[in-house]
Amino acid sequence: MGQVPQDAIKQLQALIDKVDEPLKKTFQNMHQGYPRETLVRFLKAREWNVAKAHKMLVDCLNWRIQNEIDSILTRPIAPTDLYRAVRDSQLIGMSGYTKQGIPVFAFGVGLSKYDKASVHYYVQSHIQINEYRDRVILPSATKKYGRHIGTCVKVLDMTGLKISAMSQMKLLTAISTVDDLNYPEKTDTYYIVNAPYIFSACWKVVKPLLQERTRRKIQVLQGCGRDELLKIMDHASLPHFCKREGLGSSRHSNGTHDCFSLDHAFHQELYNYIKQQSLSLESVAPIKQCSFHVDLPEPDPAGTKIAHTIESEFHKLRDQNGHQNGRVHSLVDLKITSE
User: Fold this and answer.
1) Which residues contact 334 (CB under 8 A, 6 or more apart)?
2) Distance from the first to the final alpha carbon of the chain
3) What is the tens place of the pLDDT at every residue in 179-189?
4) Residue 216 CB partners (closer than 8 Å, separation 6+)
5) How far apart are CA 276 and CA 112, in angstroms?
6) What is the pLDDT of residue 303?
7) DSSP secondary structure string, 259-289?
8) Is 116:86 a contact under the CB 8 Å cutoff?
9) What average pLDDT is seen over the chain?
10) Quick one: which H or E segment has residue 294?
11) What is the mean pLDDT of residues 118-131?
């Protein structure tokens, strides 16, 4: 790291040292013993501009306090049937680790319906997974491998992606904005697999709108991506939808092997962790059985432009294809290698 970044880190650290005690407390909960690495993430997200990184970080700390994010892992989504419904319609999971010990998270983008619960439950669940990753998964990986591990890789399954996904754009943009503003630079690489034509068409128009830093992180793999992913992880850590070719693989695995399922080891551990945390507080105050409302930040202009571009492209595809039941089945044969 050159002299300019070193100076930027020192300047940002000096500014954060001056914030009020409540902000210092939530910052400590954020960085989990690695404040320097956390400062670097926010500086990278703002192209090493200290003033902009400082504002972004302070805004994040205030968002955490105002929305009680430090206690979100004590707020279970209950009853269990409701949480299972969330898991079945918001397809997220952790399948294992790369050969370097980096957690592998999987997302069923094409088959997530977000139609079994209110928006607030989906946002709550997403943030809980982020916080569990940052407070439990990453510190455990750091301890196991003897070096700081503060990021993950994400495998995005586009199986089943269809034009009607446009109806979910508002929710997906809100969740993406939460991540961009409050969990920046937590992903090393995004691997896109099982990509149908509809994704290829959208990618062509969205790619030029992304920052170069973001474009370098995205790799679109052929088919289910198994061969390429096996270069960085063992077979056991592959998401279930990457273990065989063919559309529709996201939701056709045994529950214990389907990393999206509540029956999978990752979700069982997460669910039990949150239940245990809530029980420790029940003697102090009863846990309310309701969704955890989080203020959703406004997307920045760039994010809004990308969302509008995707919507526009979806409209074009819908008009061109006459809906065709909303499904387009031809796979893209495109691969982007990151620098």
Assistant:
1) 195, 200, 203, 220, 222
2) 18
3) 999 999 999 99
4) 338, 339
5) 28
6) 61
7) TTSTTSHHHHHHHHHHHHHHHHHHTTSPPP-
8) yes
9) 86
10) none
11) 96
Q: Residue 205 — very low, low, confident or very high, per pLDDT cuts 50/70/90?
A: confident
For residue 58, the model assigns a pLDDT of: 98
Question: Structure tokens of 172?
Answer: 């997906």
- Residue type (1 letter), 129: I
Within 13 Å and on the Cβ side, how many CA atoms surround 128?
A: 31
Q: Mind spelling out the 3-state secondary structure of 93-152?
A: EEEEEECCCCEEEEEECCCCCCCCCCHHHHHHHHHHHHHHHHHHHHHHHHHHHCCCCCCE
Cα–Cα dist 109/107, whole Å: 6
Residue 212 is given by DSSP the state H
Q: 316 by DSSP, 3-state: which?
A: helix
Our CA angle for 108, 110, 116, nearest 5°, is: 75
Rg of the chain over all Cα atoms, to the nearest angstrom: 20
pTM of the model: 0.86
Which has more pLDDT, 18 or 202?
18
d(CA 95, CA 237): 5
Q: What is the dihedral of CA 244, 250, 251, 254, to 10 degrees?
A: 50
* Helix (H) or strand (E) segment spanning residue 56: helix 50-66
